[in-house]
Amino acid sequence: MSKADLSKKPAQVAEMFDQVAPRYDRTNTVMSLGNDLLWRVATTRAVDPKPGDRVLDLAAGTGVSSAALARSGAEVVAADFSPGMLAVARSRFGTVRNMSFAEADATALPFADDEFDAVTISFGLRNVVDPKKALRELLRVTRPGGRIVICEFSTPPNRLWRAVYNLYLRRVSPLLVRLSSSNPDAYDYLNDSISAWPNQAHLAGWLREAGWHDVEHRNLTGGIVALHRGVAP
């Protein structure tokens, strides 16, 4: 079984996600104690897709987030660099008429300039080898006035809550993963990537540096997760 590391070599990370794809959603729900469902609802509301919009859901994984966006009537492209994840997504949501699938590298997206009204990525940006380049690519494919929504693990601002969360990541989460995942070792990397990820202000700075305007964020679950938003100039 494959386990990636914080060098985030694309082939290695993709192989790891291929292996965890069959039980990925169940493991996420167990690890997050069910909060992943609430985070997904918050992300969909932040994207606010409308009928006729064209939306890119990058790092779409098994397609659950893309299907939620597609229920609005928007045309949604579920993109991921893991063929295994996309295979699961197609098997579950391949009959959704306004949803298509694309294998895509976040640092070199196979889409035209100004192609999307909204772009979103949930729990995927921290797995990209060059997240700053990915943010620039997402801007390139977004029309002027279009929007970005990023849902990603972050840093709880409250010191006590942060200590509780870090204890959970180190001690409790690995036990839950071993009960629910087909590749428990892979989640050692995922926990490491959460701990190494920058805080809310740092990610907001990356968005502005990439060229996004009106950047703001909102904490979810006390800052365990943050929703970042921005607008294409």
TrEMBL record:
It catalyses: a 2-demethylmenaquinol + S-adenosyl-L-methionine = a menaquinol + S-adenosyl-L-homocysteine + H(+). Keywords: Menaquinone biosynthesis, Methyltransferase, S-adenosyl-L-methionine, Transferase. S-adenosyl-L-methionine binds at residues 62, 80, 105-106, 122. Its EC number is 2.1.1.163. InterPro entries: SAM-dependent_MTases_sf (IPR029063), UbiE/COQ5_MeTrFase (IPR004033), UbiE/COQ5_MeTrFase_CS (IPR023576). Pfam families: Ubie_methyltran. One of its GO terms (molecular function) is demethylmenaquinone methyltransferase activity. One of its GO terms (biological process) is menaquinone biosynthetic process. Pathway: Quinol/quinone metabolism; menaquinone biosynthesis; menaquinol from 1,4-dihydroxy-2-naphthoate: step 2/2. Signal peptide: none annotated. Belongs to the class I-like SAM-binding methyltransferase superfamily. MenG/UbiE family. Methyltransferase required for the conversion of demethylmenaquinol (DMKH2) to menaquinol (MKH2). This is Demethylmenaquinone methyltransferase. It comes from Mycetocola reblochoni.
